[in-house]
Design a protein that fits this description.
By secondary structure, the protein is an alpha+beta fold. It contains eight helices and six strands; from the N terminus they run E-H-E-E-H-E-H-E-E-H-H-H-H-H. It is globular, with a radius of gyration of 17 Å. It starts with 7 loop residues before the first strand and ends in an 8-residue tail after the last helix. Bound molecules: S-oxymethionine.
Length: 209
């Protein structure tokens, strides 16, 4: 087997970043997720003063296991891109829809996928912006793996990792999606049965799912 290709990075904004991180974290081939602020001009944004940035998720992935086009499909199917200022109760420019690109090839793929989405949406306007990624500012610790942190059982099952490890962990990214019930059904079931096994056998630390 040839060595793994270098990881690639993609950044998307699609509403609340708690949810965005959960959606992408479950996917096979996604190695790491980080929530943050991007798309604006304010330097050093914070949650309560993010300025003109949008809540975003940075996805590190193994391109041999998942393609940029597959990530784009998940992006489109995971939010309503026809709303100018965000999703449901989450209103404001901080929740706008953006595909951040990393070079001309990605911009082209993003543009083609947006055209397809516009055809599917008929007369409703797809508001999603496509723009080159500038600076991605990682958000405060409390917002990283937010959904997982609401679930002490899962945290304990992983051995209560310190914050830095939790942020880098592939398993944490996956369980963050599981905790939010935002994994595809098949993944949700696989994780369920793995957890049940481990609990039955008497509580060793969960290393992988
Ligand atoms: N309305 C959302 C906002 C979350 S967010 C990360 C909530 O409080 O659940 O902006």
């Amino acid at each position: 087997v040839s060595p793994d290709p270098p990881l690639k990075t993609a950044v998307f904004a699609l509403g609340s970043f708690w949810r965005s991180e959960a959606v992408f974290g479950c996917l096979n081939g996604v190695v790491r997720t980080t929530v943050g602020y991007a798309g604006g001009s304010k330097s050093n944004p914070e949650y309560r003063s993010l300025g003109d940035h949008a809540e975003s998720v940075q996805v590190e992935y193994n391109p041999r296991l998942i393609s940029y086009n597959q990530l784009l499909e998940v992006f489109w199917s995971s939010h309503d891109c026809r709303q100018v200022f965000g999703q449901g109760p989450d209103v404001g420019t901080q929740y706008r829809s953006i595909i951040f690109t990393n070079g001309t090839q990605e911009s082209r793929m993003a543009a083609v996928s947006k055209e397809k989405e516009q055809l599917r949406s008929r007369s409703s306007v797809v508001t999603t912006q496509i723009q080159p990624i500038g600076t991605f500012y990682p958000a405060e610790h409390d917002h990283q793996k937010f959904e997982l942190k609401q679930n002490p059982f899962l945290l304990q099952l992983m051995g209560n990792l310190p914050e830095e490890e939790l942020q880098r962990s592939t398993l944490a990214a996956k369980l963050n999606g599981y905790a939010a019930e935002l994994c595809p059904l098949k993944a949700q079931r696989q994780i369920n049965s793995k957890i049940n096994d481990i609990v039955k056998k008497g509580w060793p630390v969960l290393r992988d799912v």
